[in-house]
Amino acid sequence: MGILIKDAMVVLPEGEEDKIAKHSIYIEDDKITGIDNEPQGFKAEKTIDGKDRLVIPGLINAHTHTYMSTFRNVADDLSFMDWLFKTIDPLEAQLTEEDAYWGSCLGQLEMIKSGTTTFNDQQMHIHQTTRAVMDSGMRAVICRGLVGDTYDLEDRRLKEALEEAEDAGKCDRLKFMLGPHAPYTCAPDYLKMCADVAKEKGMGIHIHLAESATESENMRKDHDCTPIEYALNAGVFDVPTIAAHCVQVNDADMDILKSHNVSVVTNPASNMKLGNGFAPVPEMIEKGINVCLGTDGAASNNSQNMFHEMSLLGLIHKGTHATPQCISARETFRIATINGARALGLDKLTGSIEVGKKADLAIMRLDVPSMMPNNNLLASLVYSANGSEVDTVIADGRVLMEGREIKTLDEEKVYFEIRKICQRLGLDNRTY
Ligand code: NI
């Protein structure tokens, strides 16, 4: 199918910069086949008028747990360890496979509605994210969360992860990684096994690292090292790794991350909400570490909206460093797009609007209060937009949302099923 987006403002990469100007975009099947130059034989089955519209590359949510959207706002104002072990873990144990499917659909609805086209998911019910992605039309990197004590190649969770990767590997919107959960839930031998298997299978690793002070203190007490050194010693960094959080990192840790090309996903809302602090993002950028951005699950954010996350990222480091220059709007926008694609090994396919890349993009309204006047659109994207400006979303050349109407998932059905799950778990209809 040919789609023409005619005369819209478009964010285009220009070297290390992004430039915003008026362009027309030609899409054929799943790809962008022309910018301003109409490809030979192009036939537009659909033309989108670009007046008062801004086209951006689809945002990349580089760390989340979509199935946890069901647990939005059920465990707030708690310490990290109480949040995880006393509230979220027991609730997770009650989720059925079907529940996880609807939870993932809810997370994906929220992401599509706020301009995200690709996400990186760590899941307990891996088959259900796969199923929900097949239905939603998004692009995703998926891993099954792995926890364990020993080197055991027959481990049930690992086998599940590998089987799913093999089964669903045929859909080119899906990619699989291995997901050892965190140093405090993976014993050294288990983590080493994950690294060995990832190396053998040519897979990347998606892990939580150095998220809280308690994690770092316990690691020092039990293993006399930092969480980063713990992962290094297990061989995790011998494969392409995307590490969520990295809040509690020292200078030597950052040098290790840089020298092993580890990408760091910063999750400012989750880190603040759980009282875990601020990752040293400006320092990481200074060292040349590839930093990308994620929401984390809706149980700890409590949203899947990358505009909210961009705004936080763009502001908190200026505030905590008392230096407004330490991170720019341009840098923040790249962290939410191309850097995420790079971290997931997808930068040849997505993360920017370029001829030959997949047509993964969001079309935003400029004729709304939050985007008016159009003085500096890059600053508008980072500091002013809230996601409600996203009008149309295209992923892999397919229209997932138009005029804010979702074309793939059945929105009403998702809400109906989520309400049913929450009622069953005793989460809904409480009085306050
Ligand atoms: Ni997480």
Outline the structure in words.
There is one protein chain. The chain is 37% helix and 23% strand. It has helices at residues 80-92, 97-113, 126-136, 156-168, 188-201, 213-223, 227-233, 251-259, 268-273, 281-287, 306-321, 329-335, 338-343, 377-384, 411-424, and strands spanning 2-14, 17-28, 31-35, 46-49, 53-57, 59-64, 116-123, 139-146, 174-176, 179-180, 205-209, 241-245, 263-266, 291-293, 361-365, 390-395, 398-402, 405-406. The strands form three sheets. Strands 1, 2, 3, 4, 5, 15, 16, 17 and 18 form a nine-stranded mixed sheet that branches. A hairpin with a 2-residue loop joins strand 17 and strand 18 (405-406). The longest helix is centred in the N-terminal third of the chain and has 17 residues, at 97-113. The protein is globular, with a radius of gyration of 21 Å. It binds nickel (II) ion. Residues 63, 65, 208, 244, 296-297 line the site of nickel (II) ion (NI).
